[in-house]
Amino acid sequence: MSDDDFLLLNPGPVPLSESVRTAMDGEMVSHRSAEFEATYERAQDGLDEIFTASTLSGESTGEGTSLVLNGTATMGMEMAVSNLVGPDDEVVALVNGKFGRRFARIADRYAQVKRVEVEWGQSFDLDAVEEAVTDDTALVTVVHNETSTGLLNPVSAIGDITADHDALFVVDGVTSVGGDVFRIDDWGVDVAITDGQKALAAPPGISAIFVTDRAAAVARERNEASDGEGIPFYSDMAWHLRKAESHQTPFTSAVPLFRALAVAVEEIHEEGMPNRIERHRRQAKAFQEGFAALGLDPFPETEGPTVRSNTLTAMSLPESIRGDDSTAFFDAVKERNVSISGGQAHLGGDIFRVSNMGNLTPDQIARGVRTVGEALVDVGVDCDPEAGVTAVRDVLGE
Q: Required cofactors, per record (predicted)?
């Protein structure tokens, strides 16, 4: 890739390999055909490995069923909550960013929600979590890698608290599964959610959830007891589980997206999850060190049990170009044919975010840091873009 080519560094969608792109160009087949069932099986087998063996040793940490969904990860979040709790059940929702808030908003539609909420980017007080989760709690939701702030939340500790009260534990792994460590059994996770367009490096519009046997039993029992009343029609988990046994979905499947996902997860298998995790961590450090060499501060400064993300990097903009003044900076980045993301909601104009999800090369990461540095210089910030590139090369050994 030359410096003239478009470089996508947003935290989703992420760049696709040529094989993933071309997988979508095949002749159309029926979603009830043997050909499609074989595609679903390939995708499901790969997802099973990714969900359960996202460890540095490659060991498996759980058993259950992967479901491929015709929709983005928000569909998976809603499926998990709506199938496992009812109007009288209590859900404890942990919120320290946009997607934790989304989980809470989804749960509001289906159950009684108790929020444990801190400022976006701040760490959860585990004592407050322990106080909120009781024997009356049916389900706990949390985002593992909060995409809006670039933080990894302490899922293991939260899972221990949840298990002490025998509540179900649903985790948004949208920007961690496929790129970082994720341990189903060790963390007590009952349902995990991920998205094609993130660390799996597949197209947007398709996602997946992993359902443990315990969660599947709850979904089936609720469905049977109510004869489906109160259970979403399109996102009926029991129905999806039943159809997945024959490698199908209940409704018409997005055949080209399933093909692309099947190739994407096979590419992850070829790389090997331990290698993939190490690569994402190394590249995240390169971004962090590169931006630090430009004189930028991370967002946020981590404290408590949270740590910085290994799949995306959030940085604070200099005070002199925040708010409305940030527009010129983002325009200068765009003029160089590079796409990065700003902050969401009240963080707009205060931070920027870049992703190293997917299959970025060292040259692309160096280009991303150089582009940010050059854009900063364009808007009057004193920095040395080449110092950022040198820091990247030092980390990556290039």
A: pyridoxal 5'-phosphate
CA distance 302 to 316: 13
Bridge-based pairing of strands 151-152 and 145-146 is antiparallel
167 in helix, strand or coil?
coil
In this structure, is the dihedral angle defined by the CA atoms of residues 92, 94, 95 and 100, taken in order, positive or negative?
Answer: negative
> What is the C-alpha R_g of the chain?
21
Decide: 4 and 335 in contact? Cβ < 8 Å.
Answer: no
Shared domain check, 78 and 205: yes
Q: Are residues 54 and 195 in the same domain?
A: yes
Q: Does residue 321 share a domain with residue 265?
A: no
281 and 261 together in one domain: no
- Dump pLDDT digits (tens) for 308-331: 999 999 999 999 999 999 999 999
Six-digit token pair at 365?
């990461």
- Is there a single domain that holds both residue 182 and residue 248? yes
pLDDT digits (tens, 9 = 90+) for 347-380: 999 999 999 998 999 999 999 999 999 999 999 9
